Amino acid sequence: MTDAVALFSLIVAFAAYRHAVVSSRDNTKQIQEISNTHLRLYSNIAISKASQKYVSLLSNINKEFEEIVGKLAYTALDASTKIGSVFDEFDTKSQAHPYLRHAFHTGITVVREAYDKELTYQTGLNLVSRLRTLKFIKGNVASYEPEKPDRSIFSFLKKQNKPNGPEDAINASSVFWDSLKTIYDRIPEEKEPELFRLTLPYIEEYSRLHSEFRQRLEELEKQLEDAIKENALEMFDIRDIPGLGAKFYRVKGDIGRVRGLYFPDLHGLCEMPVHDGISYSLYAASVLFIISQHFMWGKI
Predict the structure, then answer these.
(1) Of the four listed, 101, 189, 242, 279, which is most buried by Cβ atoms within 10 Å?
(2) Long-range pairs of 42-51 with CB within 8 A, sequence gap ≥ 24
(3) What is the mean pLDDT of residues 213-222?
(4) Apex 277 CA angle, 271 and 279, nearest 5
């Protein structure tokens, strides 16, 4: 009997010991989890406090930038619309459809949509330098022949090559070429210098306004650039903060793009005749329409 009691006591003691060990492990694990949670919370609070200066800086800069780009966008849209109206004045078939202002708008819309994705990462200088090729499009339009529709019931099976970039997308757009063909067919070639002479004041109005803001845009961009350099010396990266990093770099990029969207190559043209008035107007209006659509960049 005594041996049985002793054995039972030993079993109870072992069970109690095992329970104590398991409880101790559970407690240790819970304490560690609490500690980790506390550290994460403390770290998040610390990062939140440290990043507040970047949030405030971005908010202030973005507010001023939106005011500037709003004024530029309004003037740019007004200019591109009025340029289209000038085309109607030289239309030899003014009662025909589409009206040339509509054909013109269709053309610049194709250009704007083709460059949509690149408006989120390319520089303004890069975009304008490529859009300048539109100034020399006259010969391409002259040699363009509309394609006859394929009436085969199996035409939908033909593989369409995906455009490699904006230029390919524009080149592959029959809507673009048909619109320009309509314009060139209905505006006499000898009238092109006069047409551009009438569109130039609208371009210059935007250019003057852009010139007023260009220095300030450069200053705003530099403030964000300096903040990025400062952040490189800190224990966290603003790009890792949800809702801040991506917006910070996007605003900086947009400021740089807007700063580069103007026409240094058109300076002084009021003093000489421009014989490619249609294509020069197309180039200018395409840039203007792109800036007028700033709020839609990358969303098409």
Answers:
(1) 279
(2) 47/236, 47/241, 50/234, 50/236, 51/236, 51/238, 51/241, 51/244
(3) 97
(4) 130
